[in-house]
Design goal:
126 residues, alpha+beta, 4-stranded mixed beta sheet, 5 helices, 45% helix
Length: 126
């Protein structure tokens, strides 16, 4: 939660196990691999744990957020950056958006490693 700024972050396995995921407001955050684990996991933010104002800001930008992440995964970093900047103008406190803004800027400036798979590795063990 510290890295992505969400109040509630769950894995894809947990999301699938919910009785009725549609009763929650959630968004995809990232694919991560943590120290001590072999496989990458998909993580999601449950926005219902946020203060109402923050939740509404994230919900109002969710379509552009999803489009930005799709562009990011396709290595269309300029398009992702454009969409993320639009979101940031509406909700400058969205930490997940800031993470992707930084990543896109980095890849635009420095290029993408040949073995890039979109998985973010963390050195900390959780």
């Amino acid at each position: 939660t510290k890295v992505y700024g969400g109040s509630i972050i769950i894995t894809e396995d947990t999301l699938i196990k919910l009785n009725d995921p549609s009763q929650y407001h959630f968004r995809f955050l990232d694919i991560v691999k943590v120290k001590g684990k072999k496989e990458a996991i998909y993580i999601f933010e449950i926005m219902d744990g946020e203060p109402e104002r923050i939740k509404n800001l994230k919900l109002s930008t969710k379509d552009d957020y999803n489009k930005a992440l799709q562009a990011y995964k396709k290595r269309e970093f300029k398009e992702a950056l454009r969409l993320l900047q639009t979101i940031e103008a509406v909700n400058p406190a969205d930490k997940a958006v800031k993470i992707y803004l930084d990543r896109c800027s980095h890849f635009i400036e420095k290029g993408v490693p040949a073995i890039w798979d979109g998985v973010e590795s963390f050195d900390l063990k959780y």
